């Protein structure tokens, strides 16, 4: 089993983010140890600048001087899905967690509770029974996989995106409010607008659709991309950024027929876009191993960050400047490293080397002091942003595909191989 999973991990280091989601659910659910790292290259071999002499752009390979394992009392698992969980989100106001899985359901539950409100995406009982008996590993289940979830900003509803090409709006009690049907291929991303009045869906059919969340009618459909849409991010109430496997990033004003900006600097699939806290700068991460930072004031990127040597799966802006006194951006890659970029100076502050497999998710604490990272090696690492030190490692029972930090700055929620976990950091850091 260990050799089988190590092979899977190595294969993931060179495939796209879309393909890797499918590969995750193929892993057997076993309690693997760190022996998973014995057959992969060392981080020194992967680092392109490890042999360079120090310069102003030298990346600091951060070692751990105080790494600690979380005790069992700090980690609270719940086995709530039959297969891989793709997404997990804290409710903005209540002690609730929403999860979306390849088993064809989304679920709403209280932290540490197994019982949940189940939001079924199957159209009929026959498909549901077939998926349940297959544990989410056959065509029926994958056809209704829940790929993305997001709470409405006021917390009153949950939006889900599904592989059947539909978006769905749910009440907290599990009642289906509306089905948003227009796309002809799986939807990979769903996003509420900042005030919750609009919804954006991005699909493998290359289109982005905009919906009125009160009438459930489609207001607009963009077709500017030539490949599957991989991510969407609202800048403000009327502007979105999108990215695609067609290597491009676009910015669209709602109501305009064409994008107001199209950035073509990447040379491979773009997996993620994120606006900075001021919404003035846009970061994108790509399979071309670069992180680029864009401004609406110019056509070329403001920064073109090199250093990663494999696909980039996640980028996150630090929510505050005061921790390291700069505008700070984190990126995570299939090369098993995280890089912390000083966007003001255009340099790399730290390279964080402790994961043994591709890293799919990042989340900052609300005060910006801590960064959590989730990896295919079945670990969650907690880092100090101030000095790049690894503070804690939490071992789970499956690959970690998503992380979300609680708004009270105390708890991080993660998802593993059919299970969700709450990791309580309050005793140690708050």
Keywords:
single chain, 430 residues, five-stranded mixed beta sheet, 34 strands, 10% helix, globular, disordered N terminus
Helix % is: under 10%
Number of helices: 6
Kindly, what is the distance between the CA atoms of the first and last residues, rounded to a whole number of angstroms? 39 Å
Question: What value does the Rg take, in angstroms?
Answer: 20 Å
Structural shape: globular
Q: Sheet with the most strands?
A: 5 strands, mixed
Q: What topology, given as strand order, has the largest sheet?
A: 1-27-26-25-24
Give the overall average pLDDT. 84
Low-pLDDT sequence parts: 1-7, 23-60, 63-69
How much beta, percentage-wise?
35-45%
What is the SS-derived class?
Answer: mainly beta
Tell me how many strands there are.
Answer: 34
Describe the fold and architecture.
The chain contains six helices and 34 strands. The longest helix has 11 residues, at 2-12. Strand 13 (198-203) and strand 14 form a beta hairpin. It has helices spanning 2-12, 17-24, 43-46, 125-133, 139-143, 426-429; strands at residues 61-62, 68-69, 75-79, 85-90, 97-101, 105-109, 117-120, 146-151, 157-162, 166-171, 176-181, 187-192, 198-203, 208-212, 218-222, 229-236, 239-244, 249-253, 261-263, 270-275, 281-286, 291-295, 303-305, 312-317, 328-333, 338-342, 347-352, 359-364, 370-375, 379-384, 390-395, 402-405, 411-415, 419-424.
């Amino acid at each position: 089993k260990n050799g089988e999973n190590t092979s899977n991990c190595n294969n993931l280091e060179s495939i796209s983010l879309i393909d890797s989601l499918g590969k995750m659910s193929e892993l057997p659910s076993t309690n693997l140890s760190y022996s998973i790292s014995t057959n992969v290259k060392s981080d020194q071999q992967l680092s392109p600048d490890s042999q360079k002499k120090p310069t102003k752009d030298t990346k600091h390979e951060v070692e751990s001087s105080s790494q600690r394992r979380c005790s069992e009392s700090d980690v609270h698992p719940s086995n709530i899905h039959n297969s891989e969980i793709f997404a997990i989100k804290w409710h903005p106001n209540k002690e609730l967690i929403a999860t979306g899985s390849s088993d064809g359901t989304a679920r709403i539950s209280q932290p540490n509770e197994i019982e949940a409100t189940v939001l079924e995406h199957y159209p009929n009982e026959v498909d549901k029974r077939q998926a349940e008996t297959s544990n989410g590993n056959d065509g029926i289940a994958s056809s209704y996989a829940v790929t993305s979830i997001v709470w409405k900003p006021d917390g009153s509803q949950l939006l889900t995106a599904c592989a059947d090409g539909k978006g769905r709006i749910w009440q907290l009690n599990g009642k289906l409010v509306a089905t948003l049907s227009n796309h002809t291929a799986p939807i990979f991303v769903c996003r509420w607008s900042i005030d919750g009045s609009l919804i954006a869906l991005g699909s493998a059919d290359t289109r982005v659709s905009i919906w009125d969340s009160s009438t459930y009618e489609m207001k607009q459909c963009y077709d500017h991309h030539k490949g599957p849409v991989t991510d969407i991010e609202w800048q403000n109430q009327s502007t979105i950024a999108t990215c695609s496997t067609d290597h491009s990033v676009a910015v669209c004003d709602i109501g305009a027929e064409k994008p107001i900006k199209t950035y073509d600097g990447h040379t491979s699939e773009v997996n993620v876009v994120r606006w900075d806290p001021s919404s003035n700068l846009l970061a994108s991460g790509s399979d071309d191993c670069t992180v680029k930072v864009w401004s609406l004031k110019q056509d070329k990127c403001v920064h073109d960050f090199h250093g990663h040597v494999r696909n980039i799966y996640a980028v996150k802006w630090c929510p505050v400047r005061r921790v390291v006194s700069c505008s700070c951006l984190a990126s995570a890659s299939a090369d098993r490293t995280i890089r912390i970029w000083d966007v003001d100076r255009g340099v790399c502050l730290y390279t964080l080397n402790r994961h043994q497999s591709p890293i799919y998710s990042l989340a900052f604490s609300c005060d910006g002091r801590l960064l959590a990272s989730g990896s295919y090696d079945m670990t969650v690492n907690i880092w100090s942003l101030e000095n790049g030190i690894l503070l804690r490692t939490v071992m789970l029972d499956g690959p970690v595909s998503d992380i979300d930090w609680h708004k009270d700055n105390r708890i991080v929620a993660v998802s593993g191989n059919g299970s969700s976990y709450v990791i309580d950091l309050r005793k140690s850091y708050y």
